[in-house]
Amino acid sequence: MRKSCFLKSVFILTVVIGVLVYIIQYKLDDWVIKPGKKFIINESIESIDDELITINDSANKDSLKSLLKYFLDNVKSVEEIVNLEEEKFEEELKIALSDSIISDNEISNLTSILKKVEYEKSKSN
Fold first, then answer.
1. Which CA distances in Å does 50 have to 11, 46, 47, 62, 92?
2. CA distance 59 to 11
3. What percent of the residues of the chain are helix, what percent strand, and what percent coil, each to the nearest 5?
4. pLDDT of residue 81 exceeding 80
5. Closest by alpha carbon to 71, among 14, 23, 27, 114?
6. Does the pLDDT value for residue 85 go beyond 60?
7. In this prediction, what percent of the chain has a pLDDT beyond 70?
């Protein structure tokens, strides 16, 4: 390989690697993560109606839908989903969905867990 071809290829490879590193560091969040998160959250919100079809229609069902939409809208990262309070929220949600009737007590438990999570997030910031 000639010396000039080698130098050109090293130069081009360096520029390409630099561009890739820049894109990964500064633009990956805007181009991949945020649109992906929006897509996943929108699909989850649309599937809430399908998941809650077995629940009897009532005001508590509407409250549960709004709580789930609020929860999904306010999730900002995977770390927040894995938080211990979200696990409690998930357990309470499973208990609430175990029968086809949502009680006021179950709604208040879910609401209190979400308020506690919001308080802890604001406290940590």
1. 55, 8, 5, 13, 19
2. 66
3. 85, 0, 15
4. no
5. 114
6. yes
7. 82
71: buried, middle or exposed (CB in 10 Å: 19+, 13-18, 0-12)? buried
The two three-digit tokens of residue 44, written as one number: 């989850």
**pLDDT of res. 76:** 59
Q: Residue 6 CA to chain centroid, in angstroms?
A: 47
Inter-CA distances, 75 with 18, 25, 35, 70, Å: 33, 22, 14, 9
Q: What is the pLDDT of residue 58?
A: 79
The tokens describing 12, both together, are 């081009």
3 state SS of 76: coil
Say which residue the tokens 């071809």 belong to. 5
Rounded alpha-carbon distances, angstroms, from residue 108 to 20, 40, 63, 89: 49, 27, 10, 11
Can you give the pLDDT at residue 15?
94
